[in-house]
Amino acid sequence: EIVMTQSPATLSVSPGERATLSCRASQSVSGNLAWYQQKPGQAPRLLIYGASTRATGIPARFSGYGSGTEFTLTISSLQSEDFAVYYCQQYSDRPPWAFGQGTKVEVK
Amino acid sequence: QVQLQQSGPGLVKPSQTLSLTCAISGDSVSSNTAIWNWIRQSPSRGLEWLGRTYYRSKWYTDCAVFVKSRITVNPDTSKNQFSLQLNSVIPEDTAVYYCARGGWGTTAGLFDSWGQGTLVTVSS
Description:
The complex is a heterodimer. In chain A, 0% of the residues lie in helices and 49% in strands. Chain A has strands spanning 4-7, 10-13, 19-25, 33-38, 45-49, 53-54, 62-67, 70-75, 85-90, 98-99, 103-107.
């Protein structure tokens, strides 16, 4: 099974600043990597798929990069609504689909 | 736009069966381009994919190995919904359970729509 590892666990950032989150896969997932945003009491929301394609309605300040085993999610200028937990997930090949343990982006 | 509405009890006794339903609007459980999944989330285990059902000329179901002996995922075409049953529950099955839609082909494991979540507590 593929294991997804995210870092850091918590990222403290001031509004308007840039945030960069990392995700590593235990083996290559090619470009089959998604990012989700989750706010308290809500289901995860798809942000990025195919490592770098924004889902419908996602603002351009969210960008994804990477392939193989190393991936990043960048939020170029944090807005108040962006403080949340972010998860990466591989959807390569077949189940089980694995999620990372999450990175919490909090207000500095 | 697809919407998923979950229903089911929030409290289950140990050794009993957890049962949840996910009603679909804006898509069909029999769609040839969608896959219907159950995922759970707990503080100790994070997000875990549990199982799925989908129709490709016939019905398919598969599940995660760690729950394979206890889980059933079934479609209900008459009500356009699908269900989760988890037998012989233990306190460690306490989690928020989500239903979610996956795509087809290379996006089978990409979840673009989610239910609202159901907190299920296993306790006597």
